[in-house]
Amino acid sequence: LKVLSHIDSILRSPRAPPLIYRRSKGTVQSCITENGQGCGFEHLPLTIELWADQLMALKDLHRSLRKLSLELVPWHAADPQDNRESIRVEDLQFIVDAILEEIENKEKNNQAPSLPTLFAIVSHFQKLFDVNSLNGVYPRMNEVYTKLGEMTNAMRNLHELLELDSSAPPTVVVDTVGKLCDIINENMTKQVQQLLGTQDIHSIINKLEEHECFFPPFQALIQDLLCLLEISNLDDILPTVQNLK
């Protein structure tokens, strides 16, 4: 009776689940404690059998969770509780938490490109830059990077020289350079016209034709004088002729 009384005190404890204690009902004879009160655990064998089944199922659940964990997080160390006779709920919770953590990390890294996506990117690069093999991808990348750096520096310098905003597109730079070339060509034409003393293109042509007619005989005359006077410098022609007088 002392043992039964001790069990009854445990069952009546505030920490005990309501399932394991029921007050005796009806005419069923219940065990009597020393105080003459009903023990209230006539149904306990059925509850213990239920718990035994649940404990066995707990082991099976633990085994299934371990298999799932090995599939999802194989890099995790083996659970030190695997060889224990009794499995605790905390052991199962630990495995579930590890799996949930891995799933959350995968969701966070969901934006990472997959292998097919990376393969498609490399193939697209090969098509754009005419690379026949994978071995040529890195050299061509370096070449493209170098050329891009040179072009970027050139465009930056042109923006500064032309006093353009850094956000001006290349088309604006090209148009500005074209206008400068037009201005330079126009100035050169004016300078040639001023040099030749004419504003007419036909007059320029006539001047050039006159030059072609006059210059060859004049050059031949000068060469003959240099030979005849036995001198090599044009500046010496006049002094030599004066001395001959």
Automatic annotation (TrEMBL):
<dbReference type="InterPro" id="IPR037692">
    <property type="entry name" value="CEP70"/>
</dbReference>
<comment type="subunit">
    <text>Directly interacts with tubulin-gamma; this interaction determines centrosomal localization.</text>
</comment>
<keyword id="KW-0802">TPR repeat</keyword>
<protein>
    <recommendedName>
        <fullName>Centrosomal protein of 70 kDa</fullName>
    </recommendedName>
</protein>
<keyword id="KW-0963">Cytoplasm</keyword>
<dbReference type="GO" id="GO:0070507">
    <property type="term" value="P:regulation of microtubule cytoskeleton organization"/>
</dbReference>
<keyword id="KW-0175">Coiled coil</keyword>
<keyword id="KW-0206">Cytoskeleton</keyword>
<dbReference type="GO" id="GO:0005813">
    <property type="term" value="C:centrosome"/>
</dbReference>
<dbReference type="GO" id="GO:0060271">
    <property type="term" value="P:cilium assembly"/>
</dbReference>
<comment type="function">
    <text>Plays a role in the organization of both preexisting and nascent microtubules in interphase cells. During mitosis, required for the organization and orientation of the mitotic spindle.</text>
</comment>
<dbReference type="GO" id="GO:0043015">
    <property type="term" value="F:gamma-tubulin binding"/>
</dbReference>
